[in-house]
Structure formats: structure tokens, C-alpha cells
Amino acid sequence: MDATWLKPIVETKYLSTENAHRYRAILRYFYIQHERMRQYLFPEEVYAFLKQHEEFADYTEEELQQDLDQLVKWNNLIARQETSHVRTIEEFKKKRFRYQCSPYTVEIERMIRTLEQLGDSFGGSLERTRFDRLYASLSRMETIIASDFQEQPDEMHQVWEETFDYFKKIIQNSADYIAYLHGENLEERMTSESFLVYKEQFTAYLRDFIVALQKTSMQIEQLLEDLPEDGVRQFIEHVVDYERSIPRFADALPPRAVQIEEKWETWRSLCEWFLGRDGRESELSFLQYQTNEAIRRLTRVVQRLGERHHHFRSRKGDYLHLARWFSRLESIEEAHCLSAVVFGCFHTKHLVADFGATDNIYRDVWDEPPAEWVTKPRVRHYGEKKKPQAIEDKEREKEEARLRYLEEKAREEAELKQFVTDGKIVLADLPEVTPYVRKTLLGWIAKAMGREGQAMKTENGWVVNVVNKEGTICLLAEDGELVMPNYEIHVLSRGE
Predict the structure, then answer these.
(1) CA end-to-end span of the chain, whole Å?
(2) C-alpha pair distances (Å), 258 with each of 11, 255, 264
(3) pLDDT in tens, 149-164
(4) I need a surface site. Which of 97, 273, 391, 464 has the fewest CB within 10 A?
């Protein structure tokens, strides 16, 4: 008999002990978030969830912390100290924790939920073929809807069951495997030298899954967007009618409208998992991100292990090989060439010119004149010869430079004014413009888009408001063409 059969399972104590209702509510919330691929939770999130229910109206944060500590002792939760945003030593000493479900707890909660809902079994993996099967099942549904429901009701019911059977398995298995990749035990194993044996298998497994996911998920997304809502509702009605036609003994079925609405919500959850909702990122995108992050983490671990391995490696063999290579060369010139390739240049010189740049932020580097650098001899007693000179009056040059600057600014403002029509600049109607106008308009748009109300004051005193229209335009300039969103710049005031 295996000795593990006789050991008590402390992870199940929370089901029947005192305050079991509090422990079960906490762990059910952890399990739900685990299914949504959120492995780590802070106590504040758990407390906010519990306070939404009347049973926890008098529940305090101190009681929550006590319950969390007890669940950690029973191995239901894994506590990890949060150090990513610590700014002081005092904050580090407070030991702010975030918590993760243990594998035992996930399995226990899933078993309880299975008993409650009679769900399907699962296994943690990233099966790339399930997306292909889901796409094939959705394609059959699309064919049935397009044929005006020519198939038999039992066939439609089978298609519905297969579709959501694949969907459930994708969610459960991927959530379990992603949690496994973020587990503490795997991180400890990854730091050992034995991990190098499995790294190729891990990376190939994840890479193949990502390739299959990217290939099939786009087809599924397009198919879900093309399916008409009326057709899907009729399909659901046929499925519900078939389920209600199955003979049952004295089992009271819920109303037909309730069953249809439940299945419609199930369908919406499938669409939201692939397409997202209200501008939020879909769970499919999050799964791709998590898998890519796992590949990057594995790559970094392998790199660190490789660096540790090569740190103590002797370079004697490499140097002997180079020595034999040098000894076979016929001339010193060839030896110099080989040395330059192997060791680089020994006498590289970097020249730096101290040249004052222009104040014009729109002036490019290649528009500046070349700088000259005068070398000075490196001798101890060298000193530059200086002759006393009178202070020159350059007031006239300064005034001329100021007038040139004002004339240039006036010309630039006049150039911008000619594009204002009915108090606005329509970028779609502009002719070919100069690089200065293009850079100025793009600068206004960039500053306005980052402010509330998309309004800002320009450097020449104008108050403008940027309005984004539908579509894209092509802005023509002397130095090229720019494809950009369709913006209009409304001039509210010219500062006159």
C-alpha cells in the first residue's frame, strides 16, 4: 500500500471546519480568478469582492487577514511577498503579500463546481488541435444557419454541444497550464542545471501552440464576426426545443425563454473570449501574451544558466587554436589582418567637435555646416598665444540677426494663415506644403491629443482644437508623402 494514501489531506479542512462559509467564499473567488488566468490576487481585491454580499456586511480586513493566514497554513494558498513597487525599507518590512491558489485547492474547487454543475473533466495542457476542432464545429454551425436550418434538431444539438465542449476544454486546460508555468515549483526547477535537458521540449511545445493559435484564432474571430445574431438565436431556439422534447419523469424544466437566454449568454461569453468587449482586450490576446512571456522567461533562464556554465570554462583550447592559426601565416600583414578581426583595433581614436547647435528645433543635422577641430600639441609647457584685443561692438549684427529671425517667424506665420479657411485647417484639402508646415501641424496634433479636450496653445499664440474625422488622408510635402488619420485643426483664437 502506498504511504501517501494514509496521509490526511489538510487542504480539505476549510470545507467543514468552523467559519467554513468564509473560507469557501474566499477560495471560490480565487478559483474563479484562476480560471480567468489571474493567478495572484491582493487582499484588497478579495475584501472588495466579499463586501458586495450581505453575508459579509460586518466582515473586517483584520478577519480577512486572519483567514488568509489560516488558508496559507492549510496549503490552500501560496503567499508571495510583493516587492516590485517597494520604495522604502519600511514598506519592505511590512511584507505586503499577494496570494495564489495551490494546485490542490484548484482541483478541489473544480471538483466541487463539477459536482454542482456536472461539468466536464479537464487536464492542464495547451492543445493546438482544439482550436482547429472548435473552428470546424463553428463552420458547421455557419453552414446550418446559411442553409436555413435544413439539418435535423439532433444534429444541431450535437454541433452546439461539441462547440462548447471544445471551448470549455480550451479555457480550463490553458488556464491550468499557464498557472503551472507561473508556479513556484517550476521556478525552482528552472534554476537547476537539469532544466537544460527539457528546455527544447518546453520551447517547442509553446512555440507550436502559438503558431497554431495565431493561424486558427484569426479564422475563428472572422467567423464569429460574420455570424448573424438572428441566425444564432434561431439556432439556439432549435437546440432548446430539442432538449425540451427529450422525455423526462416529473422533472420540472425551466421556462423556454430562460433556457434560451442562458444559452445566449453562453454564446456571448464565447464571442467575448475571442473578440473582447467594450474596447477591452480579449482573453485570447491575454493567452497569447502569457504564452509569449513564458517563452521569454524560459529563454532568459537558459541564457543565465549558459552564462553560469561558460563562466568557469577554460579558454586554453581557443588560445592554442589561435596561436596555431597565427603560426601558419606567411607575412606580418596577414597577421595584422587576423588580429584586427579577432581582437579588434588597438589604437582607435574618437574625434569630438565642440560645435554650437542651432536653436531651431526643426533644423536637421545635415543642414548644419561641417565643424573644424584644431589639434593642440601634447607638451607640458604649451600655452596658446593670446593677443590683447579690443571689445568689438556687435550691436548692429545682433539687431540684424533679430530682424531676420522676426521676418522668418512672420513669414512662417503668414504661410500658416493662408491654410486657414473658415476658422480651421483641413489637412485633407491642403496642397503640397513645406517641411516646416508639415512638422508644425504634426507637432500641434501631438500636443493637443495628449491634453484634455484636445486643445492647446501654439508657440505663436494661437489656440487650436484638434478634431479627428473618419478615415485616413495623404499629406503631401516637398520631402515626401505621409499617410495619417484625417484630422482637422480648428483655430479658436489667433492671439491678436
Answers:
(1) 95
(2) 37, 5, 10
(3) 777 888 888 888 888 8
(4) 391
